Automatic annotation (TrEMBL):
Single biological process term from Gene Ontology: carotenoid metabolic process
Native source organism of the sequence: Triparma laevis f. longispina
Superkingdom to which the source organism belongs: Eukaryota
Name this polypeptide is given: Carotenoid isomerase
Signal peptide: none
Family annotation (InterPro entries): CrtISO-like, FAD/NAD-bd_sf
Amino acid sequence: MVIISIPTIFDPTLAPEGYHVLHAYTAASEDFGDWEEFLKYDLEKEDGEFEGNCYKRDYEDMEGYKKLKEDKSQVLFDAVERIFPDIRSRLNSPENLISIGTPLTHRRFNRRGFGAYGPGVDSDSDTWKLLQTKALGIENLYMCGDCCFPGIGIPGVSASGCIAANTVVGVREHGREVKRGRKMGILQ
């Protein structure tokens, strides 16, 4: 699943006039093992020892990183192309900014284990069992948010809320309630 959001639809001040911000990502589906080879440069000092929680600032200069990042990003561009068929040609202009994050980016900036962008919890862990509402023994409890699928960020948390809502009332009833909320002016 690829989640796409365009926050400038609701807040045009996030980009210069005539431009938009488009955010596309997959939720916790990236194999961190593909990126592990780059970690050996993170904390190493000259003597081969590791230093604190210091992460390498830039992997771009490392052989193979740019190509792997480019290859892995294609699934995102393919999904965006289904909505905007000419997106790649639109992005070729030098004034456009394309910023592709990787699990290493998320590990550095979000401090998420293994660079998870979503619920990066081991399926055998006690934490995961706690996130399963049946295990809590509370009837009619539905969870959504940062540690539920599809994970962190406004789009992911919003999507998890929609999944919980659709579980409770079904997609059609949920759609009717959204329309009702818009008519009442409580939803955009």
